[in-house]
Amino acid sequence: MTGDRHPPTRGTSLHVAASPPADDAPPGTATGGPPAVPDQPVLSPDDGGSGSQATRLVALAQERYRVVLGSDGRPYAVDQTGPMIALSLRGRDGLRTRLATAYYDRFGSTPGGGALADALTVLEGAAGTHDPEPVGLRVAATVDGGIVLDLGTADGRCVDVDAHGWTVRDRSPVLFRRTALTAPLPIPARPGDLAALRRLVNVSDAGFRLLVGWLVAAFLPDIPHPILVLTGEQGTAKSTAARLTVCLLDPSPAPLRSAPRDVRQWSVTASASWLVALDNISTIPPWLSDTLCKAVTGDGMVDRALYTDDDVTVISYRRVLAMTAIDAGELAGDLAERILPLELTRIDPGRRRTDAEIAAAYDATRPAVLAALLDLLSQVLAALPAVRVAELPRMADFARVLAALDTVTGWSTLADYTTAAVDLAAAVLAADPVADAVRRHLGTVGAWTGTAETLYAQLPAPDPRPRTWPKSPRGLSGALRRIAPALRAQGVAVDFTRSRDIHRQRLIHLAYDSSPNQPSTPSRPSTHPQ
């Protein structure tokens, strides 16, 4: 019946009857249709609908890539014949884009979006059947204690560093992932030249040695790193120094960034680079202070996954952080024990150079400076197992790296670091109204023990009260806990205990300590590894 005709559904093929061949037509041809190819059936990419396309896409992926589950819980694809780069399945320049291109090259048509989504879902499931593999971002550790630096080049070259030296390799022994913020590093060139870097940053000699120690430690992915805070008055080229420092290890199209608005924006900022530098920081809200502390230690933050009711996502980033600020004391707070402050000196007007001159000098010396840092890293790796430090500060792993650096160079970076920590503690106390009130109170009473409620009533509050002044006894107790390390570094003992009576009240004990903490010094290296 003519009224029952329907258009062909998706996934079906239209078969058009060909006219009989003319008497003079060559064998194998038919009038009214395309030439027939004997014994070679034409495979249309659309045969079978999107399901067929998805199957072909999965086959293409399995032919060219292996799927892995990264140590961060994300699925990746690795080109079986290309560099050791872990490609995201759906992100920028990821497997989705490459599969679509490969499909067009093979079949001459573009795959549908639904087919691509189905294929990637299958590949995600396949990745989940494997044990997680470590995936580095710019730097990675090897199983034998070495370090691999991803040079960020298109061919996947890297630098392999161990206690015996370093070598540029064409193929990395470990997987790396890259982002839009991963820019290439220059190929390091021997001989190394640290003096070239010294001429570009206006810090003291002790400050320069600490900067070198911080850079060497930044190659180590498995330790906490102090936050480098470049301070100084206006016109001391803080931003320029931060940019040069960042680009020595982890260059990026955006080496300096503004402070994030919230935790989600921070997760985007931190996920894309190994070294994150924040520029022109004047104040740090409490949430950002906590977030930066977690980025130093590698602690995670749990949040609800998007578009779900019962799933969660874990944001866990250990990063190397730097920032520029006018005054470190104004922004320290909880970060005081995790900060490495370096003050830049004023630049004489007669010695100022243009940005173009600095960039030209920097680009010419980067290969030699990188080689010098790699030389020091290799020597530090060799010296670390024998290093002992008599009294470790909060950033214990970083202190051991400085002690190893002092062993191979004869410098005194560890002593300079602990001295800077004491000076920073003094700056924190000078800027903190609660710390100032505690010291004034102790100057009157000598020593004090009691509850937070009693202390809140007795502590002399400044007039007018600043916005940061605690609004309750509980807030005062929390403020004391945050500044307790800085107070102890300045000779004020702060202890939190409970009374011995049946009430078991929470007590605070404040007193001047007759023996304030002194800077730690590295002990002589031992012949036995730690």
Automatic annotation (TrEMBL):
GO terms for molecular function: ATP binding. This is ATP-binding protein. Residues 1-52, 511-530 are annotated as: Disordered. Residues 16-34 have a biased composition (Low complexity). The keyword ATP-binding applies. InterPro entries: P-loop_NTPase. It comes from the Bacteria. Residues 514-530 have a biased composition (Polar residues). Keywords: ATP-binding, Nucleotide-binding.
